[in-house]
Structure formats: structure tokens, C-alpha cells
Amino acid sequence: MDKSKEADYSITSRISRLVRPYAKRVVAAVFFSLLVSGLNGAIAWLVKPAMDYIFVEKRYGYIVYLPLGLLILYLLRGGASFLQSYLMRTAGFQMVRDLRNKFYESMVHLPVSVINRQTSGDMVSRLMNDIGILSAILSDSFRTFLVQVPSILVLIGVALYRKWDLAILSFVLFPFIGYGTRLLSKYVKKRRKKVQKFLALLTHRMNETVAGIKVIKVFGMEEAKIRQFKKENQNAYRQFARVVRLKEGTKFMIDVCSGISVAIILGYGATLVVKGVMTSGDFFSVLTAIVMAFTPLKKLGRAYSTLQESVGVLERVDSFLQLEPEKAGGRAIDGLHDSIDFKDVSFSYNKSEKVLDGVSLTIPKGKVMAIVGPSGAGKSTLVDMIPRFISPSSGVIEWDGINLEEIDLISLRKQIAVVSQDVVLFSDTIRENIAAGKPDATDEEIIRAAKLAHAHEFISKLPQGYDTILDERGLNLSGGQRQRIAFARALLKDAPVLILDEATSALDSVSEQAVQEALKNVMKNRTTIVVAHRLTTIRDADAIVVMDGGRVQAIGTHSELLQGSGLYQELYKSYGEK
After folding, report:
1. Is 45 within 8 Å of 285 (Cβ atoms)?
2. Which of 24, 143, 223, 329 has the most CB atoms around it within 10 Å of its CB?
3. pLDDT tens profile 263-295
4. CA distance 415 to 336
5. How far apart are CA 550 and CA 572, in angstroms?
6. Gyration radius of the chain over CA positions
7. Please, what are the domains in the chain?
8. Is 497 in a helix, a strand, or coil?
């Protein structure tokens, strides 16, 4: 099978896969499209008896029935066209709805490491822009093919029946139209892919600007960012203009061929009428059929270009949907009974530099273990491995002697609560944000968690209290308030393992002291892993792990490390600890 045939087969199989779930609507639409085609043929067919009986044979009594007959035909055709179009367009919208659901579900189940490699703008663009364009496959392209192909065949049949040699003479340009349309549509497909990439980049720039607007303003980057956006927007415009040029080029080519064909019919056909070889009714019937055939042919050209655009976009969506989801594992667990063990664990994002290098570490049940070290030491990467956000490049992590990779993900993550420095809150009520890890929690449980996190007081002062709806990322709260809600969410989950990744960094000293007092009670009989820069927050930890360059440099208590670890002493002094 050559490459062109393989590409055609790929397009056919992709479209078939997309259309299959909506077969009932499509079949009903096919019925009405065939009815439309038959009615188009009937209109062309009636030109001969209308011309011959009324105008040539001068049977003027039939002139009353001519407009009535045409009115009935146009009403029937309009009704059938409405039903066919409604069925196909709603099927297209259903397809978009289902694809967006599938895309979102696929995105949520991807590994965190894969998500981090994608830009937010690219994912949003694929979800909204790309999938939106795919509705054109059913609502425009497929619908056009269903209606126009049968219409063309019926009209060609009428023309051939009336005067086959004249009809064939007018069809000599059809192969050129088909080849030209296919060639131009291939270029449309390539250009559309580039358009979507530029649109994804623009979406990313918008997200980036909204998230970093304070940095842009404080560093005076407004004009630079505007120039960057305008340049990338201009690139998107150029690609889109090329798509339009190619699509309109297809339309222009068909228009030219239509004009040539009509000129042939008028020139040669009129000569035949003058010579008495054919009647004027036959002539006008053939002319009407051919003229009517070129209108759907023009629509087919545009539909084929749109189809190629959609297939190019579908390839972008497919490439995302085919990404491997997280490996679920199989063994269920219930709590932590012994320890979490890192055995010679290494990790790298690329081959040139290891983020973790041969880490061996035991985190006993019910103990508080702190992890400290300079920036880039691998602290956050280490704790991200416990909920399997990322997996080791080599080595093994065991939970009560079971390899983490063999544990069911849902079961594993039920045992873990995480509070990080970068707090994520959702555009929902405070109540639902706190109850995210325990949706069936009672109001009493939610309030108790908020009190433990030192959040109840400020929540109660809000106009709607716990029913206050947060802005995007919770920006209608202060940084400390957002972090305390994140604390409450983790505390309500009541998981046996608690991970605090620099979780008190945004709290003021008063709030931090209150939260620390609450955490002392919460940490009892709970395994807690604390990543911290402020070393005062982890003085009472059962063990402190000192990391540097992806390696464990020392392990001990606060007093032991002050005596035996030069790096810990430096860290302690650098943060002004006393």
C-alpha cells in the first residue's frame, strides 16, 4: 500500500471511529439527504416538460400547475434539508462534547511528569479550539458529502439521460477539479496544523501573562511582552491567511471550470437546438442539471478542504489521547504499618544530570522526619515520589515492603495528604475546597479541621462564611489564608501519612505558631514528612535528613546535626536561626 493510500485509509478509519457512536442520527440524516438529492433531480427533470408542454407546444393551461409544483418541491426539499442539517449538526456537537469529556478524563489520568511537560496553553487549546473544529467533520464536511454527492449523481444522471454526448462533453474538466481539490487540500491540512500550534502558543502566552502579571509590571516588561505577543499573533495570522488562500483557491478553480463547462453547453447545445438535433426542453434540462451540479461540486471542494483541516487537528488531539495514563498497580493497602523505604533511588529528567542519586532512606511509621538542604538538593522530588507523582529512574521505594509500583494508585493516595508551598484552590466554595479529600464530611468535621488549621476565625468573618466562593486560584484571599485552607483540607482527610512541602512558608509568625501547636496534636501516631527551609519548624522532628546535590549527606536529630554536620550548621546560620 503506497503512502497516499495509507493516508486515505488513515483518514477513513479515523472518521469512521468518530462517527460510529452517532450512527442512528447519521443514518436518519442519510435518508433525508437522499430525499434532498432526489428532489434536486426532480427540479432539473421538470424543466423539459415545462419548456416543451407550456412554451413550445403552447399548452398554457399547465402554467397554473408550474409554480404550484415548484413550490411543493421546494417545501419538501427545504424540510428534508432542515432535518438532515439538524441531525448532522447536533451529532457534531455531541461528538465535541464526548471528545472533550474523553480529553479531560485522559488529562486527569496522565502522570504528573507528563502533564508538567505540556504547556497549559497547549492543553487548553487542544481541549477548546482543536476539538471545537472537529465538529466540522459531522456538521459540515460529512453533511455536505451526504447531500451533495447523491445530488451530483442524480443531476448527472438527468443530464446523461437527456443528451448523453452533450453531458459527457461538459464533464471533461471533472478529473482536473478532483485532482486540484485533493492537492490543495493536502496543503490546507499542513497549514491548519501550524495554525493550531500558533493558537496554542497564544493561549499559553495569555495564561502566562495572567499568572505573571505582577512580575511583568514590577520589572517593566509590558512593552516587551506586547511585542512578543504581537509577533506570535502575526505568525498565526499569516498561517491562517494561507489556509484561507488555499481554500478560496479551490473555490476559484471550481468556478473557472464551471464557467468553461457552461460555456461548452451553451455553445454546442445551442447549435444542436438550431439544427433540430435536440429540443429546447432537452437543452434547458441538461443546462439546468449541469449548472445545479456545479453548485454542490463547489461545496464538495470546500468540504474536502475542511475535512483535511479537521483531520490535521484530529491528529493533534489523537497524539494527546494516545499518551499512556498512570500505571494503576494492583495491590490495595490499608494504612502504613511499618515504614516507607527508599532503596538506592535515583532520578533524572535527562541523562546529563541526576536530581536524586542513590538515595537510601527509611521513614518509620508514626515518626516525624524532616528533609532540609539548599535549593536544588532534590527535597521536593524525593517527597513527590511517595504519592507516585514521579517514579524512580532506578532503585525501589517500598511501602511496608511492597514496591510502590505494585500498589493500586487510588489505594496508595488515600493514605497520603499533601500540603505544599504552591497552594492550589479551586473556584468553588471554601467548604467544598476543604472537603475535597472527604466529600461526605459533615459541617462539624469541616469546621473542626479549619479550627486546627487556624482558619476558622477568618472564614467566619467573610460575608458568606464557609459558602464564600473563591476566585480563580483563591486570589480573593491572602497567601497565608490560602495556605491555612490547604492545611484544613489535608487535616480533614485524616490520612496516615502527611507530607508538608514547605507548607508554612506563607504564614506569618503568629499564624505559623498557632498551626505548629495544632500540628503537634495532629502528628501524634501519624507519619509526617516535612520539607522545610525554616529550621525552627523542625527542631523537634524525630529525624532530620540533610540533602545536597541529590544525595543524603547526613541523618540525625537537631542537636546531633548541629554537632556533626557542617552543611546543617551552615543552613542553620544562613536562615538566622538561634
Report:
1. yes
2. 143
3. 777 777 777 777 777 777 777 777 777 777 777
4. 8
5. 19
6. 35
7. 18-321 (1.20.1560.10), 339-574 (3.40.50.300)
8. strand
